[in-house]
Amino acid sequence: MTGLPAGVAIRRLGPEDVELFNTLSEADNLFDEDPSVAPSGALTPDGARDFLADPSVLFWVAEYGSLTVGFLHCIVQRRRTAGPWAEILLMEMGVHLDWRRQGIGSALVSAMEFWMAGSDVLEVWVPANTYAVGFYLKSGFIADEGSILVKQLH
Ligand SMILES: CC(C)(COP(=O)(O)OP(=O)(O)OC[C@H]1O[C@@H](n2cnc3c(N)ncnc32)[C@H](O)[C@@H]1OP(=O)(O)O)[C@@H](O)C(=O)NCCC(=O)NCCS
What we know:
By secondary structure, the protein is α+β, with helices and mostly antiparallel strands. Helix content is 25%, strand content 24%. Bound molecules: coenzyme A.
């Protein structure tokens, strides 16, 4: 992939990557806008394997040797209308705070777009946090109408 720092490579995770995935989950606060938040925490090995084996889950990492320096997680949403069979929702992405502004986020988005082009998927949505809006605009996203709302059951 062009534009990456030397030694950094991007690949999509599969069910064999449970250990890497859970190691990332235990330190993913370092990939957040605010690294003082708690990390997500690991899943059980079976839970992580099921997550990574789910065909609706797309999960890429950027690696420098054995070090994970970025990730991007999407879900594939099948469409009910004519046209492309699915669209994707970019659920979360992050670049380790020591590795930002070196093109890793852009390269992760390119990997996602490469998958889209090869899968007849033309649209990707992202519920962006304010911090990342400039990055998404630079990556070609545009603002859409309406608001994103959320409801949590207690
Ligand atoms: C947003 C994020 C993923 C960008 O990753 P990155 O590897 O630093 O991005 P890149 O180096 O590929 O940036 C490409 C271009 O996007 C723009 N950009 C990147 N980060 C930006 C920011 N925080 N604000 C405004 N523009 C930004 C710049 O134009 C940059 O090019 P430049 O460095 O030549 O000026 C990273 O800042 C991050 O992990 N943030 C914390 C987590 C987060 O906010 N995730 C998004 C959740 S919705």
